[in-house]
Design a protein that fits this description.
772 residues, mainly alpha, 5 helical Cullin repeat like, Ribosomal Protein S5, domain 2, 3-stranded antiparallel beta sheet, 30 helices, 5% strand
Amino acid sequence: MESPTTANPPAVLTFAGFKRPPQLPERYQAATLHRLMAAVRSIQKRLPLDDSLEELYRACENLCLHDYAEPLYTNLREELAAHIAFCFIELDRAPPADGDLLTAVEELWAEYNRQVRLLSSIFLYLDRTYVHQTPQLPSLRDLALELFRAQWLQHDALRNRTLAQLMAAFTTYRRGDGEVNRARLRALVGMYIDLLVYPTGFEYTFLERTQAFYQEESTAQLADLGATEGETRANRVAAYLAHAERRLDGEKELAAEFLHLDTKAPLLAAVSQCLLTDHVDTLVNLGLDALLVRGAIHHGDLARLYRLLGRVDRLDTLRAAYGRYVATTGRFIVLDTAHDDSMVERLITLKRAQDQILAYCFDGNEHFAETLRASFEQAINARPTRPAQLIARFLDATLRSGNLERTDVQLEDTLNQALALFRYLHGKDVFEAFYKRDLARRLLLKKSASTDAEKSMLVKLKAECGAEFTHKLEGMFRDIGVSEELEREFETAQEARLSSKARGKRPATRVGPGMAGGGDAAAPGLHFRASVLTQAFWPTYAPVSGVILPAEITAYQDRFRAFYLDAHKQRLLMWQDPLATVVLRAQFDAGRKELELSCYQALVLLLFNDVTPDTALSYADIQRRTGVADDDELIRTLQSLACGKYRVLTKTPLGREVIPATDAFTVNREFSAPLFRLRISTIQQGVKESDKETAATTEKVFQDRLHQVDAAIVRLMKAQQTLPHTQLLNLIFQTLKFPITAAELKKRIDAMIDRDYMERDPEDPTLYRYLA
């Protein structure tokens, strides 16, 4: 059986081609070409078209399909060339006034672009086929621009006038003193870009005129800046910096709105060169100090200067000048010997201000931070030892009791600020000596404002300098703790020796005509405390002999000695009577008072218990009966009692100075004061140390340094056996923690040679050998 497919095959349709290709009507090409060119001329003359755009497009397509594209392209090019040449001839024939020239050129360019867009739509098929397949031919758009560019370059006078007027318009725009058609400026700059003449025909001149404009402006604004000073100079510099920043921001906006993208960088570089780079030295050398002095952080002027100089990569110049300012200002404070009392506070104020400037104006720049550190270090070490002494004194005043107006937070902040200055010290051993001396006084006299603050400062010093630095200071605190425990044990031991009746009574017994001690169960009228101090931890105190203490005190000393040595048989106790403090009760006509005194003050006042109220004691009598052989010490003691704030003694004759040969002293029975308990400070216990004591402390530091230098030399030579002179000096400099000169080291090396620790090589005097 046959299948349907086999029986009935599908029908196949075939088309036969034309025997001859279709022919266009006679003279069709010429007529169509004429019609298209007529349309081109109508568009150029802004006349109505006889045909629609669709018909014209089809006519162009038909000519291209029938190999008539080349004549069509040639005729179109000729029409465009003739038209643009005519337009430029018309501009030359009747040139517009300067005010209208930019308008005329902009209108010509805009109209020409409109015409080209319309013609491109009509001749699109020509562009996509014939032009695209012929690489050497430009597209219709490129052809139109090429023809316009050729005419533009031929008419030099027109081109130069246009460029000049365009530059004037941009100058007016910058000055803001006239109306500027921003759209026209954008269009004309776009014309230069489209015509490919922008770099040489516009940009070069634009940058040149921009540079000239800002050179003139910046020079005028900074003229005679050096003749001003103070606030006036600061205001002028601040105003100029604000103006420069506005100008740079304005040029950035101008470039974004009007110019080619590639012009932005050279434009901002040219403006920065004129406004900033050319005047960096003037702004920094004349303006920085003025801004810093007036505290420009509040106005942002320093931050602006930092930002602007960062744009031109001149922060190194600013950093160097900033370092010189800090170093100069700091050195002035340090070297101002007339105001030593306020040196530390002024340095803290300067440091705090510079820290704020570093954080808020210089963005915490690590290079500026290093410059600040180096400058402060240079300034604070302009005097070798005095800053270290004064920082220790400042901490003593801060940690001393009586600063009740400070909160814990404020106290901690003050300690941190002083520690910041301490970091810059080269002679930290000088600070250690004075700080230890002052800490000893605070601990022994119980004058610390806060034990927590004292220990907090020790922790800070330990973190800063290591455990070795604070070892002795920590030992002083341990001694105080042990002494308090010993005091409780001693009191318990003494109470065990007394009867229950004696333990229950603690009278305030009056002794002599006016002076009395505090009551205690161990002995009527006396309460005794002793602090046992490890000699290696505490400052070295010169032994004092011959002082005549009351029998009650010496009895207690003997009891305490026996009590202590019973538990510590191999130890040696040495009493430091001048460090003792005494609280006496005194009866005056106006009432009873409690007086906090030094040991010598108490000894002087107790002498008047053994005489009648009106008896006068001469200086010689007082010295003989107290045993105080040091005239300076006794004079200061008598001055504090008879010439100070609280005058419990009367000096005859009157005066502020004690004259041993003539002065005599009596009890001031009429003494009165609003407080019940009074502390009578001697000059030695006040804020101002005696020159003698300061010199002694400093001398001890220098002697310790010599021992450290000698030990370092021996240690290095023993390890190396032989060392050249230069290498030995370098190693010693690296080892020591305090400043020393090469000349001083040379002396110590010679001393070690004299003591046979080392010798010079017989053949090479610059080589040292260790002697075992």
